[in-house]
Amino acid sequence: MRKRVWTTSPWFLIFSLLMFAMAVITFRYDAAIASAELAVAVASAAVVIFFSVRFKKRVSRTVLSALKNVSELSQGYLERYKMPVVVAGKNGEIVWSNSRFKKQLCQGRNPANEQLSVFLMRELSEAVNSEGYEIDFDGHHYMVFCTSAEDNYVCYYIDTTDYNRIAKKYNETRKSVALVVFDNRDEFSNDSEEESARVLLALETKLLHYANQNNALFKSLPSNKYMIIFDKLELDRQIQEKFPILKEVRKISYNNREATISVGIGVDCDNLIESEQKARKALDMALGRGGDQVAVMRGDVFDFFGGVSSGIEKMSKVRSRVIATSISRVISEADRVLIMGHRFSDLDCVGAAVGLQPVIEGALKKNCRIVINKETSMAKSLIDYTESQSPGMFITPDEALRSVSAKTVLVIVDTHIPDYTESPDVLKKAKNIVVIDHHRKHINFIDNAVIFYHEPTASSASEMVAELVTYIGEDYVTRLQAEALLSGIMLDTKNFVIRTGVRTFEAAAFLRKKGADTVCTKELFASSLEIHKEKYKIVSNAEVVRGCAVAVSDSENADIRLIAAQAADELLSVENVLASFVIFNNGGAINISARSYGKMNVQLVMEALGGGGHQNMAAAQLKGETLDDTKIKLIDALARVYPE
């Protein structure tokens, strides 16, 4: 039977006081009864005091005993611990360890006088101040806890090897969904049914074999799409190998055309549904960057692999017509329209805006202006030519910001990155946004656009606008607009040398029909003698590194951005040069202008340096760097993206 422990209670004291009070009152009436009550009160008080003193002594003995046991760090007591325990002196030298510590961490020997930090795998002070940490030691995984007591340190090792093995097995077998699409299926469909079926069968066979090699589940979906479900272990290996399936698929060819695929993968997800949703987003990003690549989405971060081949031109114009109808519907509900491009606008950016503006005003009957900073534009010749023919078309970013209302439609051309726009403030204020761009999709894109017309296989934004205006109101395209659009196409195709498809020449033919004079258009590219001298100075100082022409300019010319771009174009004519890079200082930051004819994807190189762009034309900006340091980083990026 459990022994009752008496303790002092306020109720006992109150009871005793009441007894004394009653005795005093009773004494006035009957002395005998009062004497009896007083005796009971005294007895009660004595009992309370007795047990109170007794309890305090018992607590005192218990506490002293406990303190004695704790302060005396009994070796026998620690020896019975079912885990490795070690004690170190004030200088970190081991003074004692139990048998489990010797067996598991010392292979049976006595570690006395050795430094404890060797077994902690970090400094002793750091271990004591931590709330416990994990280490791998001699094939085992431990959770280590350390504490200090005066001049001694005690450390406990909890063996979590089995738990870690289970966790590792769980992580290695987590499932990730990969969605695969046959990029250029339509192109092969134009061949005979027999050849088309052969190509499709060859692709599915390669994908099935690829899935089997990686212990993955392969499933064919409608519309030339496929699903592969990987274990994380196999997927990590594919990431290390940079997805060789891309090269294998390109081996499937017919009539000098290579098959390509785009893949989107969602990794590190809680379930297959979330993984499939992220795989769809990743696939959209891969397709938006031109296809022939793998996009891996982990959290909100994308990793890209491949993307070395040119994008496949989409022959159907149905999408252009649908987009033109949607744009007309959105603008019909607006009070005014603003057209804005990217910072340091070029002929393609300004040409697309100039080509679209009169069509919106004429066909859709809406007030429309082009937002531009004339001082920083690289298309001053086109701006001057436009203002001489049609004054009042351009407004400054500040004027645009004051005119934006809830019903204003903002059309963004030749970029889809918020920070690259002529005025990010105007973009933030606008509620109705339309994007028209041809650059490969960037991670930080404008995600609140009501219409996002993105075609990475188009040669230029001017080509895309030339198609749109044929459906919106081609009667309002004058010679001025035709020459502006043609200049943009000529700039981005290097006079119809690169990135030209059937639709490019169709757009050029339409513009020529509308009165575009090729001689007048070519004059828009004219530059001063000083610019030519600066350009060839940069070219003469270039050197070839890893098959690329790299030039550094310390020029302080106000038009250095334009000069660098022209120098990069000029360097492509050098024999055996795959790409060109011009490094220059502008606006307090180091800039890189990159160009190629398609043999090297300069977008991937610039993305490695925080920039972006297109496969044949890209750029990057580095702040807080020198010209020489930037050159070193560029060469390092080339080595990482295109290892020899």
Helix residue percentage: 40-55%
Strands, count: 25
Structural class: alpha/beta
Rg for CA atoms: 39 Å
Spatial order of the strands in the main sheet?
Answer: 7-8-6-11-12-13
Strand content: 15-25%
Distance between the termini: 85 Å
Briefly, what CATH class of the largest domain? Alpha Beta
Residue stretches low in confidence (pLDDT < 50, at least 5 long) are: 1-8, 62-73
Shape: elongated
Count of discrete alpha- or pi-helical segments spanning 4 or more residues: 25
CATH topology of the largest domain: inorganic pyrophosphatase (n-terminal core)
Q: Provide the CATH architecture of the largest domain.
A: Alpha-Beta Complex
Report the mean per-residue pLDDT as an integer. Answer: 86
Largest sheet: 6 strands, mixed
CATH superfamily of the largest domain: inorganic pyrophosphatase (n-terminal core)
- How many independent structural domains? 5
Describe what this molecule looks like in 3D.
The protein is α/β, with parallel strands linked by helices. The protein has five domains: 10-71; 75-163, PAS domain (Beta-Lactamase); 175-306, Alpha-Beta Plaits, CATH 3.30.70; 318-523, inorganic pyrophosphatase (n-terminal core); 530-641, Diaminopimelate Epimerase, Chain A, domain 1, CATH 3.10.310. 46% of the residues lie in helices and 20% in strands. The chain contains 25 helices and 25 strands. The strands form five sheets. Strands 7-8-6-11-12-13 form a six-stranded mixed sheet. A hairpin with a 2-residue loop joins strand 22 and strand 23 (589-596). Helix 13 crosses helix 18, helix 14 (347-363) packs parallel to helix 18 (461-472) and helix 22 (529-540) packs across helix 23 (560-571). The longest helix has 41 residues, at 31-71. 38% of the residues are buried.
